[in-house]
Amino acid sequence: MNKPFLPKLKIVLGSKSPRRKELLTQLGLNVRVEAMGVEETYPEELSPEEVVLFLAAKKAEAYKSFGPNEVLITSDTIVVRKDEILGKPKDLEDAGKMLHRLSDASHNVYTAVCINAFGLIRRSVVVKTKVHFKALQQSEIDYYLKNGKPLDKAGAYGIQEWIGMVAVEKIEGSYYNVVGLPVQEVVKILEEINDSID
Ligand SMILES: Cc1cn([C@H]2C[C@H](O)[C@@H](COP(=O)(O)OP(=O)(O)OP(=O)(O)O)O2)c(=O)[nH]c1=O
Questions:
Q1: What percent of the chain has pLDDT over 70?
Q2: Atom of ligand 1 nearest to the CA of 79
Q3: Spatial separation of the C-alpha atoms in residues 85 and 80, rounded to whole Å
Q4: Are 124 and 88 in contact (CB under 8 A)?
């Protein structure tokens, strides 16, 4: 097996998202998943940036103890169309409504990451990506609802799925941020943490 990237760091991923696990694994990091599951509620008055930072930090609160060199990563992604925050849909009907809201318009995807190293250092970052959707046909929405996986995704779509190929005209910013992890910013923070230990 190849040597891991940043081998001193033991990454604990506090997320049940298979995409986040896959991205960190692709980065070559040592990753162990320990998803706790918290209720994704937040105070109403928060801005989109504050919402994702709040939820990423809330997911981190569930962890109480850290082993040597353990670095906990928690994260949250939302979709924002005009002023409306779209999290994961309740059911397929809700998913259909979200896709109608996103059709023929642009929206922003915000992902925050909260990185807690050894229970001592906490670093957070939030990244925004703008996504432009074409006008979706009802038959396309119906096809995706039946054959795709809208329910575990913010805004009821996965850019990495069939709907991403069909709906997304262009994006401004990081693709990986839309999938749920702004990998470049994460690497930068992890490198800084790695440099701080001997
Ligand atoms: C917009 C978009 C979101 N998503 C995903 C990223 C996130 O996993 C999910 C938003 O829900 P989150 O609550 O951010 O994450 P999660 O429930 O998957 O995992 P956990 O709370 O345990 O960390 O939507 C995509 O995979 N593709 C996309 O195009």
A1: 99
A2: 1
A3: 5
A4: no
Task: Please state the ipTM of this predicted complex.
Answer: 0.98
| The pLDDT value given to residue 93 | 98
- Distance, CA 58 to ligand 1 centroid (Å)? 15
CATH of 10-196, one of 3.40.50.300, 3.90.950.10, 3.40.190.10, 3.20.20.60: 3.90.950.10
- Predicted local confidence at residue 1, as pLDDT: 59
Question: Which residue is closest in CA terms to ligand 1's atom 24?
Answer: 153
Cβ(76) to ligand 1 under 6 A?
A: yes
146-198 residue pLDDT tens:
999 999 999 999 999 999 999 999 999 999 999 999 999 999 999 999 999 87
Beta partners for 129?
109
Answer for the pair 133, 167: CB distance below 8 angstroms, yes or no.
yes
Cα–Cα distance list, 170 to 112, 135, 177 (Å): 22, 13, 14
